[in-house]
Amino acid sequence: MIRFANVSKAYLGGKPALQGLTFHLPVGSMTYLTGHSGAGKSTLLKLIMGMERANGGQIWFNGHDITRLSPYEIPFLRRQIGMVHQDYRLLPERSVVDNVALPLIITGFHPKDAEKYALAALDRVGLRDRANYLPVHLSGGEQQRVDIARAVVHKPQLLLADEPTGNLDDKLSMDIFNLFEEFNKLGMTVLIATHNLGLIQQKPKPCLVLEQGHLR
Ligand SMILES: Nc1ncnc2c1ncn2[C@@H]1O[C@H](COP(=O)(O)OP(=O)(O)OP(=O)(O)O)[C@@H](O)[C@H]1O
């Protein structure tokens, strides 16, 4: 599904954030991405999302080299990807169901259909009964599950997560990792950037380890 071939990235005026990365994420795999702060985890995810451009190498997404996409093609790439954030990024003045439906509305779904799919996604993460709440009335763990529902509402092939349990205790973190596992079992390819080594040990999966921009 994803293949990096000798990929490098340096931000303007900075030292290289990633150097010579070569790896493969097969379709249907679930993989962790770890490494110390500043090792390049977020940068790697941003390259896959087309939010940053590589300076060298190729990144293949289902056989297409996404380092060569034009700005007009990036939205089509992103429709195949769901992204979960550490800080949830929910719109505070919109209801939970509206937050989850928003990506569908933006891509042109009829509001009624968008709501139907958003409710189905909320059902998957166990929050159907919170659909009409405002995010502020949910716990941190619940807000993270809403973020996950929003990331999967368009049924992406690839689910990315950047420190999804950074703000949660161990029990809630395990619940979130279990949810990722469920989506993986449904066929989504999953890549999770995390510092949570305790959870990784409890749920062993293939692991990419970054050290100062290099894969160990
Ligand atoms: N927009 C940017 N402009 C310049 N340098 C950046 C930018 N974003 C990241 N960097 C640098 O690139 C390197 C990798 O950063 P990145 O955020 O990818 O690491 P990370 O492993 O995700 O860190 P953390 O675990 O703290 O989130 C760091 O040296 C960082 O300072």
From TrEMBL:
GO terms for molecular function: ATP binding; ATP hydrolysis activity; transmembrane transporter activity. SUPFAM superfamilies: P-loop containing nucleoside triphosphate hydrolases (SSF52540). One of its GO terms (biological process) is cell division. It is a peripheral membrane protein. Residues 2-216 form the ABC transporter domain. GO terms for cellular component: plasma membrane. Keywords: ATP-binding, Cell cycle, Cell division, Cell membrane, Membrane, Nucleotide-binding, Transport. The keyword Cell cycle applies. It is found in: Cell inner membrane; Cell membrane. Signal peptide: none annotated. Belongs to the ABC transporter superfamily. Part of the ABC transporter FtsEX involved in cellular division. Important for assembly or stability of the septal ring. Homodimer. Forms a membrane-associated complex with FtsX. This is Cell division ATP-binding protein FtsE.
